[in-house]
UniProtKB/TrEMBL annotation, chain A:
Keywords: 2Fe-2S, Iron, Iron-sulfur, Metal-binding, Oxidoreductase. It comes from the Bacteria. Its EC number is 1.3.99.8. The keyword Iron applies. Pfam families: Fer2, Fer2_2. Gene3D superfamilies: 3.10.20.30, [2Fe-2S]-binding domain (1.10.150.120). InterPro entries: 2Fe-2S-bd (IPR002888), 2Fe-2S-bd_dom_sf (IPR036884), 2Fe-2S_ferredoxin-like_sf (IPR036010), 2Fe-2S_ferredoxin-type (IPR001041), 2Fe2S_fd_BS (IPR006058), Beta-grasp_dom_sf (IPR012675), Diverse_Oxidoreductases (IPR051452). GO terms for molecular function: 2 iron, 2 sulfur cluster binding; 2-furoyl-CoA dehydrogenase activity; metal ion binding. The keyword Cytoplasm does not apply. Residues 10-86 form the 2Fe-2S ferredoxin-type domain. PANTHER family: OXIDOREDUCTASE WITH IRON-SULFUR SUBUNIT. This is 2-furoyl-CoA dehydrogenase 2Fe-2S iron sulfur subunit.
UniProtKB/TrEMBL annotation, chain B:
Residues 32-143 form the Aldehyde oxidase/xanthine dehydrogenase a/b hammerhead domain. This is 2-furoyl-CoA dehydrogenase large subunit. SUPFAM superfamilies: Bet v1-like (SSF55961), CO dehydrogenase molybdoprotein N-domain-like (SSF54665), Molybdenum cofactor-binding domain (SSF56003). PANTHER family: ALDEHYDE OXIDASE 1-RELATED, XANTHINE DEHYDROGENASE. Its EC number is 1.3.99.8.
Length: 173, 997
């Protein structure tokens, strides 16, 4: 493992939503700050910086991660997915996103990016989730606006719709 | 669940848009990561970043602040302290008449844990925080007062010299003839309650970007402030500029507020002052620990309430005694929390005689401010617990007691004893529908069945009036009538809306409503679309505010549930005025009667002859392209701004009656709860909430508001409390300590509606967003009281608290335990005591020598950077240690006494660092063991405070064990023996350095 100098900035190269990006980071720079301030991907939000609220949730090499508990230099060479990568086109929402809009599953939208990332990741592996499973999954996210039920409802609706679609072999979550 | 807006509905031009749950125009951007929250917006090149040093003490004098080391850090541009701020700004105005000052930063003295002490401005946030760590402050600690009732006591420590003791205000009120009613009533029933501190804690924290222009002596500030914009006057005054030199703007999106983001305003003053000092823009984004510790909080309140009651449960009089705790400073608009409900102190009931004593006290806690429900939770917790007690004490059904006292149907608008004008409603009908639709009979059967099995099951009820659209004059009820006359009248609630038509007929709406997720843009597009006969998609809405360009007034902003009732209604009025003029233009263009004009389906035409019409866009564009073809008396049809204030919101009258709010919705809740007999966990079996909020503009959003408020109320009832130790240390500084309910804790309530339009608002709508924060905590408390048959209930109903109520205090732990005894959060004694022993593989003489040798100490104490020997028995150490997310430097001062070499020594001392402080004393004894080594035994007593106390015992305990382990490894290695995994005097030393609990 390379030893990094705290006094220096290091080049970090990674894939963000399928596109190669790079930027420089001091070893202590949090991934949240790196993504938001250096790379300019502000869709990932910061609610607590101590791993509890879930607003900063992204995937790193296919695994869910709290960006606020990750250092930027740790993701060198990794594949990251963030909320900016969920929609199939800039003017079109994915199935899960559309279900959120339909169900009023967001109000201020500050928690939403992290919740979408967790659900997107989960639904890929669990096409037929129960309400209890969705609630359990989302217990790692705090939302202060919605009271959660519309989020759970949106997730279940999206899962059903995705299951439909996957029969015709579309996989846009 | 809202239905998708399908195409058939979209084309239904004859149905109004208002009342439909259309999809929100806000959502697409938020769902794709393209929201524009304050920290998502770019800043000017050269913008600097601020970080704050905050007080670890709840109450202390600041003897010295040393900033030299911080200023030496490359990238640190400036450090501001209280002295700088007092030189640059004026004190924030205080809402009562008293010679006290209210600064946004500590000046000479800190009065709550987390109070800002210094601001470091640097090239980025990381560097600014480096600077914060290097500032050294000498504090002389004072005793702290935390409890509002103790703050009243004559021997309590005093926070401000300008108040009488700690009492900022003491007013008594009398309506009707309460003395006589109490004297004559057959029953007097009373209850005393303490409503805790909590906060609706948005997920996005505060943010401010300030830019000072020296050439014009003007500030340009961007902040996720939510209003009320009466605070604009407070800020400009503090910054010593006229209002037109404070440009206050809000970002397009705000990550929730619930009242909380009103509290950003002291930071606007600080960051603006910092920008002035450095001559560059300065940005500050609050972190979560800062937010929980020191942003703002709802008030906690101690209330005694008594009722004079007839035999049938009819309440003849109420006697309120409220002691409101506003924290360390009375920050604007406090003491508004206490007076917001003044017109509604009789709740949903017809009670003619009321006595009130209202006291406002200051304590060593974070200053309070707006928080969803604002005064409602505190008032209804007392009033509705009292109603339940009346039922219990008189042997009546609680719902019967509620019904017997309701404001009679058909008596609206109804003037309450304390002055509110209840606009509309039919409470009896709402209750009947709630009982029916919510299945009360079935719930009672469930309770009976559960009880028959010996389970702990209870039902609670509440009936509350939910006020909305605050009278900007209600707060002056805190002044006497004479003081009010002197100060000049305050009343009304100016709402504003602007509707503009562009050169191709596009419709733009601007309001100064500053939403934080409530979907204002969507609702306004519906309201205005209905007026012009177009689709919501044809209307673009902007809800940001820029005080230098926009129409706004002191009531602007998003609070007191004023949007639907006041702002949306005002937009309708503005659009209506334009439409009226457009109709006259259309009449002349189409050669039809004005009365025959209709706006429909994107066209303006004749009702009687649908073929005679003109496209709305064409008509709307006329004023731009061809003003000459408009009829002479029409005026412009380009833009209309309406200011609307309801005449019902008069100033308090000379007998202190005040119509504190314009609208009054009604809520009837009931719930069934079951309590686990072993864990005493409260489980909500069913919750029913019946709302009458007048005309519903968007059913999906109304239900969203109800669910959201309900979830926060579940938190307030069961989990959330801003907890303070008796010394004023703040104990709930992370979201792992301040527990917000998650998907697992929030059940789905049964939501029922009834619509009685308000006669006072343009759309008939009333506020709805705050109601469950008022009704739900006490409804759950009433159910728990019913389940357990208890009277005194304090929120949150954590199992430990219920255990204390039901089973009494826990017995003392058996003697002889080795582990340090962790203090109980909120307990009376936060001292850490412990004892234990450990083995080291070296004889006592050698261990003794090591303990007294600075070099050995330095090599075995984890994170120790230096140990200076001041004398043989006096050491100074510098240590850097990290626990969980916080790493900090500590300066420790350690003295040895009662030396009995090589057998025993007493260590005492203090430690202080950016992350906290500690102090304590302990005795170590060394005894030879049979293997030529040493057994060390120790007892200690210590206390810690500051940031480390706020981040939670789980982290501290675990981290301490790790640090102790490292110490032993090192000590044993140095002594040539094997590490023995146990605790030792280092536990104590670390404790002295501020490191464990
Ligand atoms: S910001 Fe990462 S979990 Fe809260
Ligand atoms: S939508 Fe606001 S926090 Fe979840």
């Amino acid at each position: 493992m390379t030893r990094l100098s705290s006094a220096q900035r290091h080049l970090v190269r990674f894939t963000l939503n399928g596109k190669p990006v790079q930027g420089e980071a001091e070893p202590r720079l949090l991934l949240t700050d790196f993504l938001r301030q250096t790379i300019g991907a502000t869709g990932t939000h910061v609610g607590c910086e101590h791993g509890v609220c879930g607003a900063c949730t992204i995937t790193v090499d296919g695994e869910l991660a709290r960006a606020c508990l990750t250092l930027a230099v740790q993701i060198d060479g990794c594949e990251l997915r963030t909320v900016e990568g969920l929609a199939p086109a800039p003017d079109r929402l994915g199935v899960l996103q559309a279900a959120f809009r339909r169900n009023h599953a967001l109000q201020c939208g500050f928690c939403t990016a992290g919740i979408l990332m967790s659900l997107d990741h989960y639904l890929r592996a669990h096409p037929k989730p129960s309400e209890a499973e969705i609630r359990d999954l989302l217990s790692g996210h705090l939302c202060r606006c919605t009271g959660y039920t519309p989020i759970v409802q949106a997730a279940l609706e999206a899962a059903a719709e995705l299951a439909e679609l996957s029969r015709s072999d579309h996989r846009d979550v | 669940m809202a239905k998708p807006a399908d195409a058939a509905i979209e084309r239904d031009v004859d149905r109004p848009w208002v009342g439909r749950s259309i999809e929100r125009v806000e959502d697409a951007a938020l769902l794709t990561g393209r929201g524009r929250f304050i920290d998502d917006l770019g800043t000017r090149p050269g913008t600097l970043y601020a970080a704050m040093l905050r007080s670890p003490h709840a109450h202390a004098d600041i003897l010295a602040i040393r900033t030299e080391a911080a200023l030496k850090v490359a990238g640190v541009v400036a450090v501001l302290t209280g002295e700088d701020i007092t030189a640059l700004t004026s004190s924030l105005v205080v809402g009562v008449k008293a010679p006290v000052q209210c600064w946004p930063i500590a000046v000479g003295r800190v009065r709550y844990a987390g109070e800002a002490v210094a601001i470091v401005v640097a090239t980025d946030r990381y560097v600014a925080e480096d600077g914060v760590d290097l500032i050294e402050v000498d504090y002389q600690v004072r005793e702290a007062v935390i409890d509002p009732l103790k703050a009243l006591s004559p021997d309590a420590v005093v926070l401000h010299d300008g108040f009488a003791g700690n009492v900022a205000s003491d007013r008594s009120f009398r309506y009707g003839d309460p003395e006589r009613a109490f004297a004559e009533a057959p029953h007097q029933i009373s209850i005393a309650i303490k409503y805790p501190r909590n906060s609706c804690t948005p997920i996005e924290t505060y943010g401010v970007v300030a830019d000072y222009d020296a050439a014009e002596d003007a500030f340009d500030v961007l902040a996720n402030f939510q209003g009320p914009f009466s605070i604009h006057a407070v800020i400009s005054r503090a910054l010593k500029v006229p209002g037109n030199r404070l440009r206050l703007r809000t970002p397009p999106d705000s990550g929730g507020s619930f009242g909380i983001k009103q509290g950003v305003f002291p930071y606007i003053v600080l960051i603006a002052a910092a920008s002035r000092v450095v001559g560059r823009p300065v940005k500050w984004i609050e972190d979560r620990l800062e937010h929980l510790t020191a942003s703002v909080s709802a008030t906690n309140r101690a209330t005694s309430i008594a009722a004079a009651v007839a035999a049938d449960g009819k309440i003849l009089a109420l006697d309120w005694d409220q002691v409101e705790d506003c924290g360390a400073h009375l920050r604007a608009p406090e003491p508004a929390t206490l007076y917001r409900m003044h017109g509604n102190l009789t709740g949903a009931y017809a009670i003619d005689n009321v006595a009130v004593r209202n006291r406002v006290v200051v304590t060593n806690k974070t200053p309070t401010g707006l928080n969803r429900g604002f005064g409602g939770p505190q008032v209804y917790f007392a009033l509705e617990r009292l109603l339940q007690r009346i039922a219990v004490e008189l042997g009546l059904d609680p719902l019967e007691v509620i019904k017997r006292n309701l404001v009679p149907a058909g008596s609206f608008p109804y003037r309450t004893a304390t002055g509110a004008l209840l606009d509309s409603g039919d409470y009896q009908e709402a209750i009947a529908r709630g009982v029916q639709g919510g299945g009360l009979a079935e719930l009672k059967a469930r309770r009976d069945a559960a009880r028959a099995q010996g389970r702990l099951y209870g039902i609670g009820y509440t009936a509350v009036v939910e006020p909305s659209v605050s009278n900007m004059g209600y707060i002056t009820t805190v002044l006497t009538a004479a003081e009010r006359r002197k100060a000049g009248p305050k009343n009304g609630a100016q709402a504003t809306a602007t509707v503009a038509l562009d050169p191709v007929g596009g419709i733009t709406v601007h309001v100064a409503s500053v939403p934080q997720g409530q979907g204002h843009r969507t609702v306004l597009s519906q309201v205005v679309a209905d007026v012009f006969g177009v689709a919501p998609a044809d209307v673009r809405v902007n809800t940001e505010i820029d005080t230098s360009k926009d129409a706004w007034s002191i009531a602007s902003g998003n609070y007191a549930s004023r949007f639907a009732a006041a702002v949306a209604g005002t937009a309708k009025l503005a659009a209506g005025r334009l439409a009226e003029r457009l109709a006259r233009v259309a009449a002349s263009q189409l050669n039809i009667d004005f009365a025959d004009v209709v706006f429909r389906g994107g066209r303006v035409g004749s009702k009687s002859n649908p073929d005679n019409s003109i496209a709305f866009t064409r008509l709307a564009a006329l004023s731009h392209w061809s003003p000459g073809s408009l009829p002479d008396d029409v005026g412009n049809t380009l833009r209309e701004t309406v200011f609307w204030t309801p005449p019902e919101l008069a100033a308090p009258d000379d007998s202190d009656r005040v119509n504190s709010s314009l609208c009054h919705g009604f809520i009837f809740d009931f719930c069934g709860v079951e309590i686990d007999p072993v864990t005493l966990e409260t489980k909500i079996d069913r919750y029913v909430t019946m709302h009458d909020c007048g005309t519903i503009l968007h059913p999906g959003m109304v239900d969203g508001q109800i669910r959201g408020g309900f979830a926060q109320a579940i938190g307030a009832a069961l989990y959330e409390e801003y907890a303070y130790a008796p010394d004023g240390s703040f104990l709930t500084g992370t979201l792992a300590d301040y527990l917000l309910p998650t998907t697992m804790e929030v059940p789905e309530p049964t939501i029922l509606h009834m619509e009685t339009p308000s006669p006072f608002t343009p759309l008939g709508a009333k506020g709805v967003g705050e109601g469950n924060c008022m009704s739900t905590p006490v409804c759950i408390a009433n159910a728990v009281a019913d389940a357990l048959g208890i009277k005194d209930i304090t929120l949150p109903l954590a199992p430990a608290r219920l255990a204390q109520i039901v089973r009494g205090d826990e017995p003392a732990a058996p003697a002889g335990g080795r582990a340090p005894v962790a203090p109980r959060a909120g307990g009376n004694d936060r001292k850490l005591r412990g004892e234990g022993s450990a083995s080291v593989g070296a004889p006592p003489q050698q261990v003794w020598a090591m303990l007294l040798d600075p070099e050995t100490l330095k090599s075995v104490i984890p994170g120790c950077e230096r140990v200076d020997k001041i004398s043989d028995t006096h050491f100074r150490a510098e240590v850097t240690l990290g626990i969980g997310p916080v790493t900090g430097r500590y300066r420790a001062d350690v003295k040895l006494s009662d030396l009995d070499p090589p057998r025993a020594v007493t260590l005492g001392g203090t430690a202080e660092g950016a992350l906290g402080f500690g102090g304590g004393e302990g005795r170590i004894t060394l005894a030879p063991d049979s293997n030529g080594g040493t057994t060390m035994t120790y007892v200690y007593e210590a206390a810690i405070g500051g940031k480390v106390a706020s981040i939670g015992g789980r982290l501290l305990d675990g981290a301490t064990r790790v640090i102790i382990g490292r110490f032993f490894t090192a000590l044993a290695a140095t002594a040539g023996g094997k590490p023995v995994p146990s605790e030792s005097w280092l536990t104590r030393l670390l404790r002295l350095i501020g490191w464990s609990r």
